[in-house]
User: Fold Cytochrome P450 from Parnassius mnemosyne.
Amino acid sequence: MFWLVLLGAILTLLHVYMRLLTRRTRSMVSHLPTYKCLPFIGNMYKFFGDGQNAFNFLENLTTIMEERRQPFVIWIGQCCFIILSDPEDARMVANNFLEKPYFYNFARLWLKDGLVTAPGSIWKHNVKKFAVAFSGSMVDDFLPIFNEQSRKLQRKLEVEVNCEPFDLFEKYLAYTTLETICQTALGEHDVTETIVTKEYYAAFNGILELIFSRALNIFLHPEFVYRLTPGYKEFKRCVSVVQNVSDAVITTLSKFVSYLSTKIDLFFLENGEVKFKTFLDIILQMNDTDHTLTEEHIKAEIDTIILAGQETIATAINYIFLMLGCKPDVQQKLYKEIKEIFGESKRPVLKEDLSRLRYCEAIIYETLRLFPPVPGVLRQADRDIKLKSCTVPKGATCCISFWGSGHSKHIWGSDALQYKPERWLDPNVASMGATSLLTFSTGKRACIGKRYAVTLMKTVLVHSVREYEFVSEADKMELKIDIALRPISGHLLQVKSRSGVK
Assistant:
């Protein structure tokens, strides 16, 4: 009995001490909506469960934020998280805070100091040089690969015509976007045999699932605890499989390092042919002049660019096809636009076509608004900052909610929850949307691959929609969060031939 009383006294004193440490922060956010906090774990009990429970939690706090028109506060242990959905607040936070919270360290064994997980100082040192690989002129040079990969997907879909509904993401899209990013960003063309293997993709998905499951369990956050679990062993195994690919790519292409350094900025010759410079080419060339760029860092950037360029784009394209499948009027308008531009020809998409695909672009942005591939991003506050409805205290973590922003009636109007691509054809909405659509993030660490992603999506849609009609029940879709926003039901797609002939 004595020991129980002693333990209770120690825990009580520890709880009081921890409350005193966060007294200033609690006082500054006391007027914001939150859930009831439990000792030591805060609101973490709300996260217990699977990815579907996490999504339901996101929807619930989004509803509260919409009603109160205020940020929402979550306490994970003694760490304060302030959820933001207002685009102006999001830009203020993103432009002032470059550092990311400790959650991103869960991926450091895999991505190390790549652009996604790097400290602000390393990110600032590299981002401008890396962004060149995804500039407008470079993306235009990728169009032949985008067209070839889109034709390849279109040919694969031929076998699905008039068959049973299937999971487009799992069966085709994940591999299509992975092949594309390997060819455009890494210059690796023989990807089917060397990179896009079932073992690789299973390991890739395993990493995402393990990181997310760890994030949801506060007791696994300490590194020394996590290293004792079976999950850590599995995480190391999956990372090893993925990084073997990075090693293979670097070994294959490192012979170009000295060669690249003698060539002009945008092109180099290979076998007598002019070839665009890839993301990897730029990194290797940087290595000649920047000796702080180690081989480990190069591998980290390769893994990062595969994650960003493959997973998120495949997820976005999947949602686009699903929405087209349950919105036949939208799909018909897109088909009409494609026919007006391309006629009866099956020619590839050219640079000049991209700006004319206005309704296609509207569909892309509307889908990204309602179904962001990643629900949000985090930033660490290194000082107090005043927002419209609160002051973010130093030490708090700001979560910019793409989901909350995209579903806000205060931002998008009374029809915000309706799938309505036409809204983007209104010049006023399009102008507002350029700053209010947060899916590509905002501020200084926004996504450098926006143009790459939108161009690839347009190309895929042209090649597929002009050949096939798509049917889905996505209006009944249920979702979960697994780092990415993923469907768990209502996500099967059926393909029909527009000619009526299989």
Remarks:
- Residues 255-274 have pLDDT under 50 and may be disordered.
- The radius of gyration is 24 Å.
